[in-house]
Amino acid sequence: MTPDETILNVDDEETPRYIKRRDLEANGFHVIDAATGAEALRLIEHVEPAVVLLDVQLPDISGYDVCRYTKSKWPEVMVLMTSATFTTSESRTQGLDAGADSYLVQPAEPLELAAAVNALLRIRRAEDILRSLNVTLDAQVKERTTELARAINALKSSAERMRTLLSTSYIFQGYMAPDGTLLDANRASLEGIQAQIGDVVGRPFWETPWFTATPGMPEAIREAVERAAAGETVQQSIVVNLPDGERAFDMSLRPVKNDKGKVIGIVPEAVETTQRLKAEAALRQSMKMEAIGQLTGGLAHDFNNLLTAVIGNLDFIRTRSVEDKVRKWAENAFKAAERGSKLTSQLLAFSRTQKLDTGAVDVNAIIGGMRELLDQSLGPGVIVTFELAPGLPPAVGDANQLELAVLNLALNARDAMPDGGALTVKTALSSDAKSLLVSVADTGAGMSPEVVARAFDPFFTTKPTGKGTGLGLSQVYGVVRQAGGEVTIDSKIGRGTKVTLCLPLAVHGIVKERRHDAAVTRSVKSEKLLLVDDDDDVRDIVCRVLAELGYDVREAAGGSEALAALSDFNPDLLLVDFAMPNMNGAEVVTAARARNADLKILFLSGHAESAALEAAVGGAPLLRKPFRPAELATAVRSALDS
Ligand code: ADP
Ligand code: MG
Q1: Residue 414 Cα, ligand 2 centroid: separation in angstroms?
Q2: Residue 202 CB burial class (10 angstroms; 0-12, 13-18, ≥19)
Q3: Cα–Cα–Cα angle for 259, 264, 265, nearest 5°?
């Protein structure tokens, strides 16, 4: 017995109470007494006895009620009912019903009473242990439940994070079983094929719309999946047809293995490379064009000096010869030389070393004015349609070169439609309203991707010798690039071709072209001109033309010679070539102006880096080589009169 195991002995009759107390104390129990129900309840509350020995018959409250109340308030207190009078089985039942743990008829043997109390104490101890076990069990369950809930929450939010990562990624991602059955696909990948998850899940990966619209692709993917299923990480660059066009990807198939190394799934991933590949191709193309441009530009420069001399001299023969036959020959040669000059100007336009007259142009007016020309050049088999968007703002461009570009495109279209067809020339504002689009479309033979890739190259032609120069599209390219625009070819074999020029809108309005009257222009006061050019032939013809016109001309083959001549000659106008060895035209001008600030200048040039020339020339007039004598005369006159 432990010290807190007190026995409360409740009986209103003193003698039996005493006997019970004595018997219990003799067996080592600690006993306190109560004579009424009320006293019993008070003691139970304050002493918390282990066992209450409860007589049924009490003067104030019935023993049953005391028992019931005790059991409801302190269930751990054991109640042993005793009675000398209520000994029937009903009264015993009634006692047990009220919650008593046992019932003992009085008077009982002292040993019997002690045994009964001991039995109750054992039960109580066992119950105590059970109760405390229960409490800790409860606590443990609670703890485990919270832990579990926490783990589940963590799992949930981690899964959610993974979902978010997957669904916001630009990379196409998915998951499939080792046999290729698709189990999941992220949002980017579904948007790529404009499909819902339900459309693809459960299907073999290679039979999904990512691949089915591209010939040969399903077979290739199936083979790749098989390799991944065998444990290999497969990486491939692919180009596929998706709803919004052809797109390129770096694709990988990664096997997922369990801890035994068995493949339990495959992760397909694809990173889009369309833009990068396009940018790389564009860069390669522009580098190539730049290189070819420098080459052709240099060539054209020499050519222009040559042509200046040829044209000038032929003009002399043509105008001075008294013999008709000679005049005719000279005329023919002159025409041929002019064609040569057109060719070099096309080359220069392409190489971008010839600064074109880019200003604001009314594209509709230019193209509208070409109707007759196009009808004539295309012949009756081709139906020409114009679709010109009304009210277009002016665009950046060179009117003459733009006209030539459209003509070049139309001639290509004609060549592509030997049996006739339709040609559509269209103008429109771009969707972002920042540029103007000019497109020329035909229903002809079309081009292979290889031809498209090289079409802008100068001298690239697929036409028989004598028919094609390979300079048409180069000219188109040069004009558009100089205007700061772009040109694209959309063509398929057998499906026709559409070439689209995209020209930036002009910030300033259209400037009316100012044409100098070619009617000459002689020198009346025999003004003094100093000509600086390193090319002997050019110098020779220019001097001759100007002397004929009555000017007093002095020539210099280079910068230092010119500066030396300045001191004693004192010219009204300095005609100076731009590209010269040792000292270029701009340097000569700077030095000359240091001596005579009012000196008038006319630049001559057959070739020059546009930017360098522009910067050097400033406001000074510029005459392009090759020029005809009449053009030279006009330019000199207007430079002097400015
Ligand atoms: P050319 O016309 O002298 O051959 P271009 O530079 O104008 O030179 O064109 C280059 C090549 O591009 C042509 O030889 C032809 O193969 C192809 N090409 C250009 N335009 C078209 C078109 N409208 N249809 C089909 N092929 C074209
Ligand atoms: Mg052509």
Answers
A1: 9
A2: exposed
A3: 130
Residue nearest to atom 18 of ligand 1 (CA): 412
CATH of 6-168, one of 3.40.50.2300, 3.40.50.300, 3.30.470.20, 2.60.120.480: 3.40.50.2300
**pTM attached to this predicted model:** 0.48
pLDDT digits (tens, 9 = 90+) for 594-611: 888 888 999 888 765 556
Domain spans in the chain, listed from the N-terminal domain onward: 6-168, 172-272, 359-504, 528-641
Is the distance from the beta carbon of residue 634 to the nearest atom of ligand 1 less than 6 Å?
no
- Distance between CA atoms of 358 and 372, rounded to whole angstroms? 25
Which atom of ligand 1 lies at the shortest distance from residue 408's CA?
A: 7
- How far is residue 141's CA from residue 492's CA, in Å, rounded to a whole number? 74
- CATH no., domain 172-272: 3.30.450.20
State whether CATH 3.40.50.1360 applies to domain 359-504: no
Identify the H or E element spanning 104: strand 102-105
pLDDT, tens only, 442-494: 999 999 999 999 999 888 999 988 788 888 898 899 889 888 899 999 999 99
Tell me how far the alpha carbon of residue 413 lies from the centroid of ligand 1, in angstroms. 8
For residue 95 and ligand 1, the question of a CB distance below 6 A is answered with no
Q: Which two tokens stand for residue 87?
A: 């000994």
User: How far is the centre of ligand 2, averaged over its atoms, from the C-alpha of 474 (Å)?
Assistant: 9
Ligand 1 centroid vs 624 CA: distance in angstroms? 29
Q: Please report the atom of ligand 1 found closest to the CA of residue 462.
A: 14
Is the CB of 382 inside a 6 Å radius of any atom of ligand 1? no
Cβ atoms of 180 and 229 within 8 Å: the answer is yes
